[in-house]
Specification:
Length: 398
């Protein structure tokens, strides 16, 4: 058994099958929780934030229970690696079950045919272009779904959903697989050569650290207690209006209320707030990245004022804010690829069994397998998108 010793404590470095079993048990429960929050109760929306609060809650509960199990039977406790595997499984399932992901796909699988009788023009415009093999077109099945007083499992209502769901699952699985292969290819460059900090993983690592220094920190519990008391007070005030509310949100906090004449009115909504979780995320971010977020938000507002002064019709994302964001993302990808060209050359040489400065023996899969896997995954996704009607040029770009 491979172990790493820290201050005399032995920590298993492998992952046992029960960690995956526990993760698979938590995934559907977590997905149900996320969908209930975001789609049934219309909030909160944990998946719109880069680090998922529900996944952190699961990890915190797991760490607490694991500490109790370790006291009773150390052999039954989970290692750090196993807890992080479970957290990763919960986090990935949260992303897929969360806002604007699979729930949106499920809604679009049947809604066009459900709403077609109320929109007769749909059958003459776009309905015929939707692939039926990815949709549920049986209105007899869709009617009880939207009207209620029925069940997905009543009278075989689930059958028309099986094949379309499997096709969509295969597409998402291919995308996730490609990203895993890309991570294998770039992991060494990002973690060992560029030494990126990956701020959103710092908290899960600290929560599962074997010595438990985070849980023993007075500063941590002081900040946690203040935040918990604040959120508890604001939550209780919804049910008991007599309690005071400390408004930390952007509601009623708009710095642009007095700007009513052009071009200054083009600045639009300029809120300020004091979200504790944003303060925490800002603490984890590198200073230059935090500065960039702040600076370019104000720069965007300045662009709107200048555009209005020049006579442009300034809307929500004018002037060309979305296009600038896309251009920035493309430039970032190109810069990363160019700066990594030497490393990627060594990856390719290793994959071709030629002399290389890199060793992939410690990776989950070899570089050759990762390249082949990514190519096959992208090819499947490309065929999938072409079958739903995308042109070859759009498929290549996407």
């Amino acid at each position: 058994m491979n172990t790493s010793r820290k201050r005399g404590r032995s920590e298993p470095s492998y992952v046992r099958g029960r960690a995956f079993a526990l993760g698979l048990l938590l995934v559907p429960l977590n997905a149900y929780w996320v969908i209930s929050m975001e789609k049934v109760h219309l909030g909160p929306y944990p998946t719109v934030i880069s680090i998922f609060a529900n996944a952190l809650f699961v990890l915190a509960a797991l760490a607490g229970l694991n500490a109790l199990v370790r006291r009773v039977s150390p052999s039954l406790s989970l290692s750090t690696a196993e807890m992080l595997i479970i957290y990763t499984m919960v986090a990935v399932s949260t992303a897929l079950a969360g806002h604007d992901m699979i729930p949106t796909v499920v809604a679009t699988m049947g809604y066009p045919w459900r709403a077609e009788p109320y929109n007769p023009d749909w059958s003459r415009t776009f309905l015929s272009h939707l692939p039926e093999w990815l949709s549920v077109t049986d209105t007899a099945v869709l009617k009880p779904l939207y009207e209620g007083n029925s069940s997905l499992y009543a009278s075989g209502h689930w059958r028309p959903w099986v094949l379309p769901s499997l096709w969509w699952v295969s597409f998402y699985a291919a995308i996730v697989w490609v990203m895993m292969c890309v991570n294998t290819l770039l992991r060494k460059q990002w973690m060992e050569h560029e030494r990126l900090t990956f701020p959103i993983v710092q908290l899960p690592l600290a929560m599962t650290e074997p010595r438990g220094e985070l849980w023993r920190s007075r500063l941590f519990w002081t900040a946690f207690g203040m935040t918990f008391a604040l959120e508890l007070l604001n939550g209780l005030s919804l049910y008991f209006p007599s309690l005071p509310t400390i408004n930390v949100t952007e509601r009623g906090h708009d710095l642009a209320l007095g700007l009513t004449t052009r071009p200054w009115s083009a600045v639009g909504w300029l809120p300020y707030s004091f979200y504790p979780f944003v303060v925490g995320l800002g603490y984890l971010l590198p200073a230059d990245l935090s500065f960039s977020v702040w600076f370019f938000y104000l720069f965007w507002k300045l662009e709107k004022i200048i555009a209005s002064a020049l006579g442009m019709d300034v809307g929500f994302d004018a002037p060309y804010i979305r296009q600038q964001e896309f251009g920035g993302a493309v430039a970032l990808v190109v810069m990363l690829a160019w700066s990594s060209r030497g490393y990627l050359r060594q990856v390719w040489r290793r994959a071709m069994n030629r002399e290389s400065a890199l060793d992939d023996s410690g990776e989950p899969i070899s570089y050759r397998s990762a390249i082949v896997g990514a190519a096959l995954g992208m090819a499947y996704a490309g065929v999938f998108m072409s079958r739903i009607g995308m042109s070859p040029l759009v498929v290549v770009i996407a």
